[in-house]
From TrEMBL:
GO CC annotation: cytoplasm
Record-stated family: Belongs to the choline/ethanolamine kinase family.
Family annotation (Pfam families): Choline_kinase (PF01633)
GO terms, molecular function: choline kinase activity; ethanolamine kinase activity
InterPro entries xrefs: Kinase-like_dom_sf
Any one Gene Ontology BP term: phosphatidylethanolamine biosynthetic process
Origin: domain of life: Eukaryota
SUPFAM superfamilies: Protein kinase-like (PK-like)
Name of the featured protein: Choline kinase 2
Amino acid sequence: MIDEETNMLTIIDYEYASLNPVAYDIANHFCEMAADYHSAKPHILDYGKYPDIDEQKRFVKTYLSISGEEPDAEEVEKLLQSIEKYSLASHLVWGLWGIISDHVNDIDFDYKEYARQRFEQYWQKKPAILTC
C-alpha cells in the first residue's frame, strides 16, 4: 500500500508474497472478496460477494488497459478464463493453509471451517471450470 500523503510504502502480508501468474493473483483477489476478516465471524465466507461477470470484465479491462491501449474482447476473455481456472488453485492453497494453520496458530479463528469452505468452493466450481 502507498500512503498518498507521505509517499511511504507499506508491505501487507509480505510472508504470503510470491511470484505468481497474474491470473492467479486476480483470482485470489476475487476469492478474497468473499471474506470479511473484521466481522464477528471472520472465518465465514460469503461467496455472494464474489464479483459477477460484469464486474470481473470491468476489472480485467482496466488491468489490461494500463498500457494505454484498449484490450480486445478476445484478450479479455482469455484472461477471464485463466482467472476462473486459477480460482481453483486459490481455493486449494488457502484450504491447505487453513488445515496447517489450525495446528500452528492459537488465535481465535476457526481455521478448519475456513478450510472446509475453501475446499467446498473448489469441488463445487471444478466440474464447470475444467470442462470449458
